[in-house]
Specification:
Blueprint lengths: L6 H49 L5 H137 L6 H33 L11
Helix pairs in contact: 1-2, 2-3
């Protein structure tokens, strides 16, 4: 005789058998691994999920936070996880602060460099302005000196030309004087010979007096001539002079 089992009882029986099999497997696993081993396996599983979530953080950031929380809560407890999050956020804040400080210091240094460059440029501009004024003043002074030198040079040239002509005339006169003096003494020698040799009617005293007179004649005659020239020159100064004769 075949017994017909209702469908609900059959399903319930299958579920009960499945639960019994799962319980038996878990019990066998607990007997095989123990509590420490199970904790290590759970930690390993949670860490694998955490690492997988980190790898997929770009596409699923929420999964990373959940896996991270589950992992650290399991191994450190809720307070340990809170401390971990606090330290993590503190480190992130310090990193951001450090980055901001680095950027700020860089900007400050650049501003200081710009300020120093401006000061240097302004100092250079001031120095160049003073230098330009100094050179312009020196150029003006040099131009004035050149103008004065041109006038002075003209006067000096005129005076030099006048001195040159006067010296040339003096040299010519001196040369004529030397020639005349030589001719005079030659004639004096001839005259003395003729006086003492051929003129026998004149006494020796007169001959000596004539010789002495003509011997010293050039000396006192020169003084007399210069005195007469000076008188003539002073006399001509009384008349209007030609400016061209003064050059």
């Amino acid at each position: 005789m075949t017994t017909n089992t209702p469908p609900d009882i059959t399903d319930q029986l299958n579920k009960t058998l499945a639960q019994i099999n799962t319980y038996i497997e878990n019990s066998a696993e607990e007997l095989r691994c123990g509590p420490d081993c199970q904790a290590l396996e759970a930690t390993k599983t949670l860490k694998e999920k955490y690492e997988a979530a980190k790898a997929n953080v770009a596409s699923a950031p929420g999964e990373l936070q959940t896996a991270e929380k589950n992992y650290y809560t399991y191994i450190m407890g809720t307070s340990g996880y809170n401390d971990y999050i606090t330290n993590k956020l503190t480190d992130q804040a310090n990193t951001v602060k450090k980055n901001i400080q680095t950027v700020t210091n860089t900007l400050i240094n650049e501003m200081k460099n710009l300020n120093d460059t401006y000061k240097t440029s302004y100092s250079s501009y001031t120095y160049l302005s003073k230098l330009d004024k100094k050179y312009n003043d020196e150029i003006d002074e040099l131009e004035q000196n050149i103008e004065k030198a041109s006038i002075t040079t003209g006067d000096v040239t005129t005076n030099d030309r006048k001195t040159y002509y006067e010296k040339q005339n003096y040299d010519d006169l001196l040369e004529y004087y030397k020639i005349s003096l030589w001719l005079f003494y030659i004639l004096l020698i001839v005259f003395t010979i003729m006086l003492f040799v051929m003129n026998r009617g004149m006494s020796i005293v007169k001959k000596i007096l004539f010789f002495v007179f003509f011997l010293f004649f050039p000396i006192f005659s020169t003084s007399i001539a210069l005195w007469m020239i000076r008188i003539f020159y002073n006399f001509t100064e009384l008349f209007p002079s030609n400016v061209y004769t003064k050059i």
